Description:
By secondary structure, the chain is an alpha+beta fold. The protein has one domain (about 50-170): Heme iron utilization protein-like fold (3-Layer(aba) Sandwich). About 30% of the residues lie in helices and about 35% in strands. The protein has helices spanning about 5-10, 15-20, 25-35, 40-45, 60-65, 160-170, and strands spanning about 50-55, 70-75, 80-85, 90-95, 95-100, 110, 115-125, 130-135, 140-145. The chain is globular and about 50 Å long.
Amino acid sequence: MTGTAASDTLARPPLRERLANNADGILEQIAREYGVSTFEVVEALPAAHRTIFPGSDFERILSALTSWGSVVFIVHTPEIVLECEGPIPPGTSGRGYFNLHGDSPIGGHIKAENCTSIAFVMRPFMGRESRSIQFFNAAGEAMFKIFVRRDEKREMIAEQVKLFDELRGRLAG
């Protein structure tokens, strides 16, 4: 390690401590800084900021989202952060995929069996409160994320916040 790299490592607080003091930031970037998966970062968030469910709840959760109206669907890879706004269309399982079909810009074929964990995340992002549902694969990387939408004043849509909290509560119940 160079002198700078060693001092950067020594100056950086442990992950859980960093997130307890400040849960804001891009999860994938935090994961890179700490040399862990994005899911490990989510797991390290204080309990008040995350609730984790098994991937076996995939269809149940995605089906519930079809009644939420327009949401923000994000796929974040090292090369692109792709954001699409629209309603989650209904889906069916077939040929090894969960197939989304409907009148929405969100559509496609998801390898649902690769989803091992689903996290409901409630935390600050860019200084504003946020809520998202993040679907993780076995490598601990997000397959995709669904965020509660914001209005023209950049406030979260209250009805979607309510639906998020109710769904999380039902699953945890």
